[in-house]
Design goal:
Oligomer: single chain
Number of domains: 1
Number of helices: 5
Structural class: alpha+beta
Helix content: 10-25%
Shape: globular
């Protein structure tokens, strides 16, 4: 794992992100790297996040995607004070797309965090999400003692991803999905790190 600062990357002219730039780990796998978002990611992020199959499996992605929402997401992710840390799955050095998915960690109290992820539909079933989550757990960039994941009960593929990464089922809950406009039953998983 190597550290990269926001100001090390060109094309990140977002006010408030370059001065006193935060460091964020770059997590490398044999198929892609996970890195901080870039403004240039907005087009591919928008294309994939606008897919109803991706939005329906997310709590926060709207469908249809409003104009400017993706750019606002990238700008928020790059702010120094951003609580949620976001990584882009970038396969460009391995013959894949520059954006193949997103993974985020949201810090919680008591050295805990919640992990969330999505992979572009064209890469479903390829093991990329499983590889990314295992690498994130191993890197543990927030130094968490416990990681949680919340998976919609009708998304069994993501449930398999988290269990393959060592997460254990701890109970049922529900959460609101913006794209569905409804409460959705979820499974909650925990992983001690």
């Amino acid at each position: 794992m190597k550290m990269e600062t926001v100001k090390d990357r060109a094309a990140l002219a977002v006010p408030g992100t370059v001065e006193g730039a935060v460091t964020q780990s770059v997590i490398e796998t044999d198929r892609f790297v996970m890195r901080a978002p870039r403004l240039s990611d907005a087009g591919l992020l928008n294309m994939y996040a606008s897919d109803i199959r991706v939005a329906r499996n997310s709590r926060s992605l709207p469908h249809p995607m409003p104009p400017g929402a993706t750019e606002a997401f990238v700008a928020r992710a790059l702010k120094l004070e951003a609580a949620e840390k976001v990584w882009i799955l970038d396969g460009s050095d391995h013959g894949l797309s520059e954006v193949i998915g997103v993974m985020s960690l949201k810090p919680l109290d008591r050295d805990q965090c919640e992990v969330a992820f999505w992979v572009a539909p064209s890469f479903w079933g390829t093991g990329l999400a499983r590889t990314a989550l295992k690498a994130m757990v191993e890197a543990n960039p927030l130094g968490s003692k416990t990681m949680f994941a919340e998976i919609f009960q009708d998304n069994q593929a993501s449930a398999r991803v988290v269990t393959a990464a060592g997460f254990e089922y701890i109970g049922d809950a529900e959460t609101y999905s913006v794209a569905r406009g409804a409460q959705v039953p979820t499974w909650t998983y925990l992983r001690k790190v």
